[in-house]
Amino acid sequence: MPFVHLRTHTEFSVVDGTLRIDAAAAAARQDAQGALAITDLANLFGAVKFYKACRAQGVKPIIGADLWLEPLQEGEKQATRLLVLVQNLRGYLNLCQLLARAWTGNVQRAQAWVKWDWLAELGEGLIALSGADLGAVGLALLAGDTPRAEAIALRLAAIFPARFVIELQRAGLASHEAHVRAAVPLAARLALPVVATHPIQFLEREDFEAHEARVCVAEGELLGNAKRVRRFSPQQHFKTQSEMEQLFADIPSATANSVQIARRCNLELTLNKAQLPDFPTPDGSPIEAYFRAQSVAGLERRLHALYPDPGQREARRAEYEARLAFELDTIVAMGFPGYFLIVSDFIVWAKANGCPVGPGRGSGAGSLVAYSLLITDLDPLAYQLLFERFLNPERVSMPDFDIDFCQANRERVIDYVKQKYGRDAVSQIATFGTMAAKAALRDVGRVLGMGYGHVDSIAKLIPAPPGKVVTLAPVPDEPDSSVVYARKEAPELAQREAADEEVRELLQLATRVEGIVRNVGMHAGGVLIAPGKITDFCPLYQQPGSDNAVSQYDKDDVEAIGLVKFDFLGLATLTILEHAKKLVRARRPGRENFDYDQLPFDDPKVYKLFSDAHTEAIFQFESRGMQGMLREARPSRLEDLFALYALFRPGPMENIPSFCARKNGKEAVTWPHPLLEPVLAETYGIFVYQEQVMQTAQILGGYSLGGADLLRRAMGKKKAEEMAKEREKFRAGALATHGIPEAKADEIFDLMEKFAGYGFNKSHAAAYALLAYQTAYMKAHHGAAFMAANLSLVMDDTDKVRQFHEDALANGLAVLPPDINASDYRFRPVDAKTIRYGLGAVRSTGESAVGAILEARKAGPFTGLFDLCRRVDKRTVNRRAVEALVRA
Q: Angle between the 638-647 and 624-633 helix axes, to the nearest 10 degrees?
């Protein structure tokens, strides 16, 4: 092996790379390169993906980064480059620290600068390459300042003893050869080794123009602009070992040293091993004992609330305690008590500190332990929700609670977690936006200088089916059923491509950059809690101008390195419900203790509201399609709402007419097998939920519920070989357990397989339908308070205000106009049937201006316009605000 590539910028460099990680790893293997480095610009965004891709190809992954090094002398404005490669775990942790410090504390002109004294502190375990013509040594040499170049080289050699190398490049840029001629003698004088690197930015020479287009997108430049700075050459593609040998035939030690450096880099990352933070038990007791005690005590409190009658409670106790014992044993065996206690702790804090929490989301509502620890608020036994759908004892994987918080208070809960576990141990998670087909067309059209209208007319031809990936790539011999091929679906696109050379160039370049990472963002809800500092696992990144640090790895990669993700999601409905509850408590005599956990689930007014489809502002049931389904179905119990929520999506929708007909006695209810009546009775004989598929496998096929969950997963993946094995297993189980013949077993298996593909998670449907019921209850019984809360939340959206205003009138509510002496900032109920318009909804006023008016009003009502103007703070209530109020 004569050469190893030690410098590559992948697409995760974000501003200047189009090299895809899988393609890079495959190219290294094809050229028999035993190792390959990733050295993206000032980040490790793609490090874990690269590590896994190289290992899969039998190539040794080398992790590194191309650092911005701050100027050595005051007055210098230009940062230089230094390439560092990780030798071992210490080097990896030090690089994480360097990058985190730079991004969170030393961003200059959108570049994360590393300080020289940080290098001295955190240089262990890193091999440093001088940065060639862009490094501090190289720039001094090119400026003719050899003494300065020597001094810098010696300083770096002292920071990285026996680990500093002079870097040489010949990639077709004007400065490269001049740098080589000056750098080789310098290295010889100082007894420093040299190494050849090739600054790879893209895979093949033909990718150069697409790479330049990508750079122009990042820099807001035009591709054809003669004056733009051209920093790259067509030679910066993935060269073979023989090409690199020829390129440096006069300096053979430079290529040989690349292999020696690769041999010295031996980082082993531990992947897929959960690293849970420690949960501090209040009394210092062992975590398992504390977890069990809290769960048992929590169940007791739940049972007292569910069954106030002692006799009824004792009759049901055994069933609940047996389920709790099974779940506790499973959770302890899998090592997750700490996870449940952490989630329970911040949810209990949120509920106690005025931050409403949703009843559940996803499959977590199937856990009785979660219900006992107040993580969820839906009794899983009452609604046949399965624990194995959430945490399968036969398939070890991290539990994953998605938690909905009141949108207005979510940040308070995150702050609580930061205070409890340490700010160094908590961060949010990066996401990477990519150039989808339409975005790639628009971006490339702009850098080509094409007219907006012209590009827009082409982009509008691209289909956009929901839930499907759309690509500009040609249709392969074996097309992927989950992908929509734009050229096939939109024949006019191919016609315009054939007829117009400009369109042909646009599509060619857009196809090459499609799917490339375009920008870095923040995950909507993901929060990491590490057992120690986050930088002991991964580096941090901070958007210039932001004060929120995020992990440099996305959600899949942080889980791969063992960090645990907690989803803190903001849900506006919870904010509305909380505001409405406060209004009811404050303004309805006798309802001072009103709470949602006391609502009856058999309220006829609520089901009439659903059946009449008066569902404006009702969570998840607002759309026209939903309203049509509700009129047809006429739901009369909570379980009907579960099913309708689950059915209203592509795939299951075809069963809605039959569901409605069976529900209302217009069609006979039948079962695939009599033994399935208890499983399918609540959905009138129709498979709706994934849990029903699991229960069918358990009852008829003799599966355990854990095994049935694995079957459900396999059915969803539709792998023929795996399905054939499962079919045999189901046939054998059905015959042995119930004497069901093969033909009947196959018929039921086919039915299960069809529904497993698009069946819905019942736990999620139940939790979200419960939220829908709560909003409907408020609308039916406390309409003024509920609509005032809705109107207050959308005050900045005139269209939404008008929509809710019209719905309030249609439901018999009166809305009084804004009044300077009677209105508050928000909408508020005056009585059970009347709402007063909020001053905050008057456009061009603003919260501070209205706040100043309300403060002045405390001294007494305003007697007129001049009195108002005399009494308010003119700096806050300006002419614009007063004129807006006059017009209103």
A: 140
Contacts of 714 (CB under 8 A, 6+ apart): 722, 723, 726
Q: Which two tokens stand for residue 553?
A: 């790895």
For residue 166, which phi and psi values (nearest 5 degrees)? -80, 125
Length of the chain: 888
Q: Give how far Cα 65 sits from Cα of 55, 80, 143, Å.
A: 19, 13, 26
Residues 870, 885: Cα–Cα separation, whole Å? 16
Provide the b/e sequence for 720-738 (b: ≥16 CB within 10 Å).
eeebeebbebbbebbbeeb
Choose among 592, 425, 533, 518: nearest CA to 13. 518
Beta bridge partners of 306: none
**DSSP states of 32-86 as a string?**
T-SEEEEEEET--TTHHHHHHHHHHHT-EEEEEEEEEE--SSTT----EEEEEEE
Whether 283 contacts 104, CB under 8 Å? no
What residues does 421 pair with on adjacent strands?
none
Q: Is the pTM of this model over 0.70?
A: yes
- The structure tokens 């054809």 sit at 224
Evaluated on CA atoms 515, 521, 522, 528, the torsion sign reads positive
Residue 798 CB-density burial (10 A; 0-12 exposed, 13-18 middle, 19+ buried): exposed
**Cβ distance 125 to 87 under 8 Å?**
yes
Cβ(180)–Cβ(240) under 8 Å? no
User: What six digits make up the tokens of 638?
Assistant: 């909570």
Residue 797 amino acid letter: D
Given a cut of 90, whether residue 793 has pLDDT beyond it is: yes
pLDDT in tens, 117-144: 999 999 999 999 999 999 999 999 999 9
Are residues 33 and 45 in contact, defined by beta-carbon separation less than 8 angstroms? no
Q: Could you tell me if 572 and 793 are in contact, meaning their C-beta atoms sit under 8 angstroms apart?
A: yes
Cα–chain center distance at 339 = 20
pLDDT digits (tens, 9 = 90+) for 511-553: 999 999 999 999 888 999 999 999 999 999 998 878 888 999 9
pLDDT tens digits along 670-685: 999 999 999 999 999 9
Determine the pLDDT at residue 613: 96
